[in-house]
Amino acid sequence: MQKKNLGVVLIVCAALATVIVVVVMLVRGPQESAETTSAPTAAQPEQNTQTDRGEDAGSITTDPLGRQVFVPSAGGGDVLSSTADDGGTCQDIRRPEGLQIQRINAYPVLFSTDTGPTEVAGSIPFGYSEGPRGAVLAGINTYMLMMSGGTPSKEIARSHILAEQKVLDGLRDAPPGFNPPELRQLSTVAYRVRSCTDRAVVIEYAMPQMGDESGVFPEPKWRVISTLVVKDEGRWKISVSNDAFHDLGFTNDREGFTEWNL
Q: In the chain, where are the structural domains located?
């Protein structure tokens, strides 16, 4: 996909009621195209580890922070479990287990062994835990796929985001296609839950930025985005309507953040 696909998505996001400033740090290369007797236990998720995968499932690489990244041969990713647990409650939110970064449309999507995603349709992985931990993972994954442009943006707009009609129309009208593999967006490093109910969760995500127009930073900085994740029609969706999405800029305050185990 050409660079204009990303531009289409950014223009669409700019049309939101609040000004959304999406800052991403792209790392570019050349631009080319236990069971008991007292009670039965719940069935354990069927897990798929790297050792279970065939040689043609994909390849392994690393990102600039040294984190392992799986590049699946299947366009929508390779699920690590076909089922998800209950996702906990607002009082006991923990980070998902068995996390792996998978690169979809050159953007990072987080797959887990307990929280989802559990299915893939087209270029979109979906199926997350019912509880708020499912919202934490669904929120960042939906955001990344929306921002990636092209075919994933078109597909994500159909049933995974809540927005004004003109925004949905803009995403659906984006030119189809996929980014070249040299275009690489960094995965988030941490999250912080600001408020939580069983129907809506406000989550902040820390995105690593390696530098800016002035040069490379001595250490990566955290840039924070805040989004509202709402349960609608039985699934977690991100809201990009009105005041539901904010770019909070750089932060040195890391209190309350939980870093992914990657």
A: 4-27+44-259
What lies within 8 Å, CB to CB, of 144 at 6+ separation is: 104, 107, 108, 109, 185, 187
Residues 6+ apart with CB under 8 A from 206: 188, 189, 190, 191, 192, 222, 223, 224, 251, 254, 257
Helix, coil or strand: residue 10: helix
pTM: predicted TM-score of the whole model, two decimal places = 0.80
Residue pLDDT, tens place only, 41-60? 444 444 444 445 556 788 99
DSSP structure class, residue 66: S
Question: Following DSSP, what letter does each residue of 101-139 receive, concatenated?
Answer: EEEETTEEEEE-SSS---EEETTEEE---SSHHHHHHHH
Q: Quick one: how far is CA 170 from the chain centroid?
A: 20
